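Translate sequence into structure tokens.
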Amino acid sequence: MSIDLTTKFLPYVDEMFSTESKKSLLTNQDFDWTGAHTVKVYKISTTTMNDYDRAGTGSGATGSRYGTVASLNATTEELTLSKDRSFTFAIDKLDTDETAQQLAAASALARQQREVIIPEVDKYVYSEMCENAGTAPAALTLTSENIYSEILKASQALDDAEVPETNRVLLVTPAVYLLMKQCPDITMETEIGNDMRLKGVVSNLDGANVIKVPAARLPENFGFLLVHPSATVAPTKLEDYKIHQDPPGISGSLVEGRIVYDAFVLDNKKKALYYQANKAAAAG
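Result follows.
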């Protein structure tokens, strides 16, 4: 005797894990691209200090008691948006009905944003920051014994460049964060406000907020990145997502999306980014 056993499909989707973007903690939105594809930012030079000529021995049209009159340079740097990305997919009306409403346009769009769009934008922004960091020493093998001294070197580099001490952020992978936890010399402040924890801050080290980001969203061989948010502008000019119901040629939903974004490290603020590559990450 044979028995046909029942197969039951539950109205549940086994979603992939994903993390929210934390780039807002490391970047800024200081510039406005509304009505423009390119923004130009001025860079103004300064002049040297002189010894005041109290006796008035200076002569000529360009000479005075204050010294020789200098001209200031006013150059510009262009910030042109380069990432114009899109996607589209269709969901048949019967596919929605016959999967207990689990294959629905709205939930599929949210999944696309969560699992595809946010990771892509994050990876691009972090890559631009690492590539354009003002200080990037040679890669080394980070261990629990040297991690603290290397972070202190990064902090010193930002101090010497007169980068503001407030609002600094230390970006690490989970593996490097583990090294920090294993280092006997590191005492991290874990009494972080709930509002900052919701944004992704896990602790504070020497005044810098520490955030963890999955290694998949960071450049290969990433060690750590100490930054001040003022250095990187990360605009998202356009986010346009549409669900068309029963468009011509499709019985169901047509989903379309477009996002225009970029990341720019300002020339005069590059020293506010210190990137340390990790040889151990490459070996792993």
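Note: Residues 105-131 form the longest helix (27 residues).
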